[in-house]
Amino acid sequence: MPYLTPAQIESFQTNGYLIIPDFIDAETIKAMKAGASEILDALTLEELKIFTTENQSDVLDHYFLESAEKVRCFFEEEAFDENGDLKTEKHLAINKIGHALHDRIPVFEEYSYQAKFLALAQDLGLSQPQIVQSQYIFKQAKIGAKVNPHTDSTFIYTTPYSCLGAWVALEAASVENGCLSFIPGSHKKYPLQEQYIRNAEGTGTTFVKTSAERVEWPVEELIPVEVPAGTLVLLSGEVIHASSANRSERSRQSYILHLVDAQCEWSAQNWLQRPPDSPFRDMRMVVSQH
Ligand SMILES: O=C(O)CCC(=O)C(=O)O
User: Fold this and answer.
1) CA distance 11 to 24
2) 64: helix, coil or strand?
3) What is the pLDDT of residues 155-196, one digit of tens each?
4) How many C-beta atoms surround the C-beta of residue 11 within 10 A?
5) Which band of pLDDT confidence, cut at 50, 70 and 90, is reported for residue 51?
6) Cα separation of 276 and 280, whole Å?
7) For residue 55, what are the CA distances in angstroms to 30, 58, 236?
8) 112 with 283: CB under 8 angstroms?
């Protein structure tokens, strides 16, 4: 059964993103927020130390790379004072949780493997959809970091490209608290500029160029997309998007999934690699078991 109308599919193909109002209800939002809060409750002092001890970049790299198959918390950069101490309590200091919530935490698994996600991914041309990563983004009040203009296929690279983002607002998102913004149609205009890869030793990450043609993105064309809580925003892997810093008094929580087509080739260079005993799951199988 299709989920998207032909007009929605056409709009996604033209603009590189699509807004779907009222995708989830208040009860689901409450459950997801409670799930995230529980993860933060359990965040240990040991994990906090990784961020506060100086000269630990190799430890941080390892913590990040491991998050491909785990649930890891990452702090807002501005959460620490000049002495390296947290300025606020931990629940107000986390930038995001990633990247395997969909496979590790029941409330996120339930949300992520819904039949309607499978249907809309298929509507958009993914014949064998797989969820490869999930992130709970807090965009904390006052200190929420900006996200620079980027394309998601840079981070989730398949041949041919197949990355699809599914971002849902768990709180109202406005210009004031750092909503998403897009350059409409940019997914068709510009060759992908770079790929974010694991280094050869597998110990860290770096960017490599994917196009000989260097393009200056017209960032002045970014259009803010303000949405109420419960709205889903679908993103093409090649559309240029960003979000501003949040200096407001309100956080801007959201949960984003990234899907690919398992028929396409997963880059062995992608930063995100699952160990053999914890592979990506076939969405059709998981949804049918739910
Ligand atoms: O939620 C945000 O502010 C940005 C998310 C985003 O751009 C991404 O995950 O690709």
Assistant:
1) 21
2) helix
3) 999 999 999 999 999 999 999 999 999 999 999 999 999 999
4) 17
5) confident
6) 9
7) 38, 8, 37
8) no
Q: Whose CA is nearest to atom 10 of ligand 1?
A: 152
CA of 152 to the centre of ligand 1 (A): 9
> Does the pLDDT value for residue 138 go beyond 90?
yes
d(CA 217, CA 230): 30
3-state secondary structure (DSSP) of residue 72:
strand
Structure letter (DSSP) for residue 82: T
Give the pLDDT confidence of 81-115 residue by residue, as tens digits. 988 888 999 999 999 999 999 999 999 999 999 99
- Which has the closest alpha carbon to 160: 120, 123, 108, 125? 125
Residue pair 250/40 in contact by the 8 Å Cβ criterion? no
Check pocket membership of 254 for ligand 1, CB cut-off 6 A: yes
- The Cβ of residue 221 has, within 10 Å, a number of other Cβ atoms equal to 13
3-state DSSP assignment of residue 62: helix
What letter represents residue 217's amino acid?
W
Task: Give the CA radius of gyration of the chain.
Answer: 18
The structural domains of the chain, with segments of one domain joined by +, span: 6-188+219-289
Residues 6+ apart with CB under 8 A from 93: 75, 76, 79, 86, 87, 140, 143
3-state secondary structure of 92: helix
From CA 260, how far away is CA 287, in angstroms rounded?
16
- Residue whose CA is closest, atom 7 of ligand 1? 242
Does this model's pTM top 0.70?
Answer: yes
Report the CATH fold assignment for 6-188+219-289.
Jelly Rolls (2.60.120)
**Cβ of 253 less than 6 Å from ligand 1:** no
pLDDT at residue 201 in the model: 87
Distances (CA, A) of 88 to 35, 39, 97, 132, 135: 21, 17, 18, 32, 22
Rounded Cα distance, 127 and 105, in Å = 26
